[in-house]
Amino acid sequence: MVVVMEERASEDQIQRVVAQLVQMGFDVHRSTGSLRTVIGAVGGQTKGDPRLVEALDGVHEVMRITEPFKLASRTFKPEDTVITVRDLRIGGDEVIVMAGPCSAESEAQVMSTAAAVKRAGAKVLRGGAFKPRSSPYSFQGLGEQGLQMLRVAADAHHLALVSEVMDASQIAMMVPYVDILQVGARNMQNYTLLRELGRLRTPVLLKRGISATIEEWLLSAEYILAGGNMDVMLCERGIRTFESYTRNTLDISAIPVVKKLSHLPILVDPSHGTGRRDKVAPMARAAVAAGADGLLIEVHCDPDQAMSDGAQSMFPGQFDRLMAELRIIAPAIGRSICLEPVARRGWGSE
Amino acid sequence: MVVVMEERASEDQIQRVVAQLVQMGFDVHRSTGSLRTVIGAVGGQTKGDPRLVEALDGVHEVMRITEPFKLASRTFKPEDTVITVRDLRIGGDEVIVMAGPCSAESEAQVMSTAAAVKRAGAKVLRGGAFKPRSSPYSFQGLGEQGLQMLRVAADAHHLALVSEVMDASQIAMMVPYVDILQVGARNMQNYTLLRELGRLRTPVLLKRGISATIEEWLLSAEYILAGGNMDVMLCERGIRTFESYTRNTLDISAIPVVKKLSHLPILVDPSHGTGRRDKVAPMARAAVAAGADGLLIEVHCDPDQAMSDGAQSMFPGQFDRLMAELRIIAPAIGRSICLEPVARRGWGSE
Amino acid sequence: MVVVMEERASEDQIQRVVAQLVQMGFDVHRSTGSLRTVIGAVGGQTKGDPRLVEALDGVHEVMRITEPFKLASRTFKPEDTVITVRDLRIGGDEVIVMAGPCSAESEAQVMSTAAAVKRAGAKVLRGGAFKPRSSPYSFQGLGEQGLQMLRVAADAHHLALVSEVMDASQIAMMVPYVDILQVGARNMQNYTLLRELGRLRTPVLLKRGISATIEEWLLSAEYILAGGNMDVMLCERGIRTFESYTRNTLDISAIPVVKKLSHLPILVDPSHGTGRRDKVAPMARAAVAAGADGLLIEVHCDPDQAMSDGAQSMFPGQFDRLMAELRIIAPAIGRSICLEPVARRGWGSE
Amino acid sequence: MVVVMEERASEDQIQRVVAQLVQMGFDVHRSTGSLRTVIGAVGGQTKGDPRLVEALDGVHEVMRITEPFKLASRTFKPEDTVITVRDLRIGGDEVIVMAGPCSAESEAQVMSTAAAVKRAGAKVLRGGAFKPRSSPYSFQGLGEQGLQMLRVAADAHHLALVSEVMDASQIAMMVPYVDILQVGARNMQNYTLLRELGRLRTPVLLKRGISATIEEWLLSAEYILAGGNMDVMLCERGIRTFESYTRNTLDISAIPVVKKLSHLPILVDPSHGTGRRDKVAPMARAAVAAGADGLLIEVHCDPDQAMSDGAQSMFPGQFDRLMAELRIIAPAIGRSICLEPVARRGWGSE
């Protein structure tokens, strides 16, 4: 922590700050210039809040010098984390595409969509069984029945499965069905849920909250990592800004920022990030070009009949074209998007 | 819903939109001008998402014409809701001040703070036993032990008690201790929690999420109201903007906006809204002047030693001065801030 | 400037940073802890951009320790600036209300509105002759003819006059008519205009840009002050956020923030800040309660016929009631809103 | 315009709205449902402000049904605009890269940078002679001398030249030097400047304001188009959000949104959009993948010595690598990035 004193700070005020910092467990270095005194505080375990110092008389500004997250930081672990899910490696050379319907609605819908996305090159089936909806009057998902449909369809097409968990009480029921548990944007700071996920060994896909800073997002990942579950992948899905032509503003620059700050894989969800089908392909291409480790894309065999988020779901034909475009782009940054799984190990049915 | 077609929309495209709206259960009125066709859709239960229509070919824009919340709207209930908590009336003529420490830390701290805020005119003690903290390494609250301390101090000074619930699993334990259950900003869209609170008859104080629109906030209130719990009060606590001199930007204009859209009482939390002690008094005065039904203010007998949020807690002397200022301001809009409770009914000890 | 090195920064990288800082004219203090090296750089004239250091290898973060504005800062001038305009003192004990139509439209409209606002207690007539409009097809103002109408009406009712200047080329023509030159939000960073205003001795009212930080706003004030014109008053008028129920989010907390950082008077424009007539009174009351030195309010004798911004203009009766409410609120913070001018010196006609 | 009345609106209130709309020149269609009356207003020239209607009693909401810009809209001109600058076609199949130093600082610097960017495949030299700086104490550019240096270097390497104009008074002097006049983000709503540019036939590159909506941006383009200058290209350069790890948030989704709304070419400036050299390449790749018609990139032969914005300037070697990556990406969407100009027509020296 660096404490910058006001220009007219008195010696008493400076001493009061030094005393507070010492009490908080810091080693203190004082540097007095012609205009201002600057106090550096390093080492030790930080106890209490930097704002405790900020509120003292004579203090102009307090600046933190370490990131508040530890296990999630690249300083702690310089090499990229690669998460193994069945025979997939998320965070490696291959860009992993997860695709499927917003919600599971029927066996036929799930099965036909799974077939379509598999054919185009997706490696993971995505689909919701529990839907967080801002209105209590909207469709809330099929629950466990939806998970069963998704698992059957995933197995039939050799796809891994990711689905959203909304509450700690759902975890035990969901784990047998899914390969990756998704935490939605609204739950990014549901600490009870994050702590429980930290006790599992199932990989977690953690979406960024709609107005979360990247630091808060990495701190939420830290909650899971601190519990011992090291398989956390991040997913950018759009932040809230003043612009209203798009549902959210997909923050593509979060990709290189996270890559520098953290070793965790980062995916991008262009479907929720834009909310409009015709914006999904350009933003998916942009995400891969900027270095994303994967994509999460809504595809629906009949989006106009979808019970939620149909407007942002791609048609299978659009998804095919997108995958073809991505196969051209990925090599520009030394990545690939394979059509066939590298191997088939780990699938019970083979 | 009003659907505006593109200027060059074909008759086929228009028919497709009409068919979709009819299938969604709407009565449809078509109005074709020289430039554009506009389609009005009214009545019925809305099934599915307006964005389903938005994504059809030839559609320029889709505009909703009804608020998505019902029970929370002033259309549904024109008169102000007044919530009775012991002998207090929240939403009536009196501006209710809730004050106390950010977190319960010790019996002595809670008791002396309760005495101080009571003396200055607060009617409700606020204090946290469970603290949602963005870092897993920060102080997380004393739990049930903290609630016991707070209840003892509230009873000793004839104060009602409000405290934050972080998860549905904590409700049953908390209800015997508190008069009002607070939902924090991070949980504004924790729908599992909101639904459980809807089953109670304990009043709920629902904070606005840090980047929630007013519409989303009222929809979250709707989750509680739809369950049958009509005693919901709202609390503005600052939204996230680009400005960084303040921790958040306290949205004072939310007060008149909510007053127009809804019958629910609205309070303001200037402590979290600004994050700095010296900004709390000006913003508390502004909130009352703009028509807030109450305030939620952090006061700590020794803020510099507080284990969380000390920098934004007022000293008792500052709080006294603020209350004196508010007593001058409230009459400007026909409100009052009483020093003594109107009546003492409902206190077991009397 | 404080430079925080990465944890694994090499000695070479540290030396490179030190050399760069020395070249930029700083005195350098190095402090090496167990984890990180922190380099303090003080004194001298800062040449170049702190980001030059930020981009060097091994640098984790660069933090500025001085505000970039000088003449505008309270450090430079601890006492409040009071600006004398005719017989008014802006920034003193009296809260100064400036009111009038958005645009001058006709002699009758300007004269009747001036009479109404004078009667209610306004001290300055506001009104636009040049209107910055986002659409080239909107009404753009009457130009010099409008200024003449405004001056005649102001003189007839012993009001000072403030009007917006849009371009440096308009200054010479405008100065004989107005007492205060207003710089609109869109021109807050029109540096050519700011520099020209710095050469005048006419007071300037500088509105905050719609997404300007407080620091950028004070830097724009600095452009005027640096030219020698010390009579700059600031005016908050709403910032752009994600919330769409209000046109902008009026940042009431900017009042105490500016009061701490700067000695310049700060006014508030609740009309543009909210965009809706029924929100103007609550926000005007909030502004005075939070410590604003004055208000800028749109009043129109027939707002429904106004050629611009009628929806946010108050009716004279509403303005009367607001002024009565403000007279109750102002004393809460030791301020007053006088009905009659303290003195009549300076009016040519008396 | 569509006017939605409140549920309890009286017949008188409805008649008042109809009368107002008729007076504003609209054809009015009334549709009364069981809950609400909705009034459609089409045709005619819109006089006055929709908010005039919004403020009438009984009105719930007013929704505009036409974009406020005309000449800039794709409805007005369905085919893409291609702007010819010397032998270049901006908005055609080739992605045009404009590169060079932030500011012209010396003949040697400008000449060596021009050589480097030409070699890598840039077609336009960018460089500032007038620099809008938020602080009055920062380097403000070399003025006409800088333009001379840039023109000489551009001609020497067969590059077109783009440079920023800050004020209408600079236009006449600049036109002989530059091929494209750039309007910076801070001047996007400098209407005096925009109107003057509308009178020219020199192409204009119009940057998006830091918090401008896409609609406001297109309205600013409309000011230039309405004057008769149809050669306007847009340039996204980052918007202001709450995220602080990047200087701004580059809004990549603006590319497909603008492509749908308008026929004008859109470029992206990843240097100002991120403010950090190591983020420029990922964002430049993302922009091309999303469909941008061109890029504006800062390159400096010795960025650590640059007098402004050095931290975001690429080294020539980095720029070479980026251009190689872009050549792989562009074909994914049917575009190209040529190394050699298609033709050499129009260069006086050949």
Structure description:
The structure is a homotetramer of 350-residue chains. The longest helix of chain A has 14 residues. The C terminus of chain A is likely disordered. Chain A folds into two domains: 62 residues, Phospho-2-dehydro-3-deoxyheptonate aldolase, domain 1 (Alpha-Beta Plaits, 2-Layer Sandwich), CATH 3.30.70.1140; 251 residues, Aldolase class I (TIM Barrel). In chain A, α6 packs across α7. Chain A is 32% helix and 18% strand. Chain A contains eleven helices and 14 strands. The termini of chain A are far apart. In chain A, strands 7-8-9-10-11-12-13-14 form an eight-stranded parallel beta barrel, surrounded by five helices. Chain A is α/β, with parallel strands linked by helices and 350 residues long. Chains in contact: A-B, A-C, A-D, B-C, B-D, C-D. The interface between A and B is large, with 49 and 48 residues.
H/E series of chain A = EHEEHEEEEHEHEHEHEHEHEHHEH
Overall body shape of chain A: elongated
Average pLDDT of chain A works out at 88
Helix content of chain A: 25-40%
Strand order of the largest sheet of chain A: 7-8-9-10-11-12-13-14
What's the number of extended β-strand segments of chain A? Answer: 14
Biggest sheet architecture of chain A: 8 strands, parallel, barrel
Distance between the termini of chain A: 56 Å
Count of helical stretches of chain A: 11
In terms of quaternary structure, the protein is homotetramer
Quick one: which chains have the greatest interface? A-B, 49 and 48 residues
Helix vs. strand class of chain A: alpha/beta
In the CATH scheme, what's the topology name of the largest domain in chain A? TIM Barrel
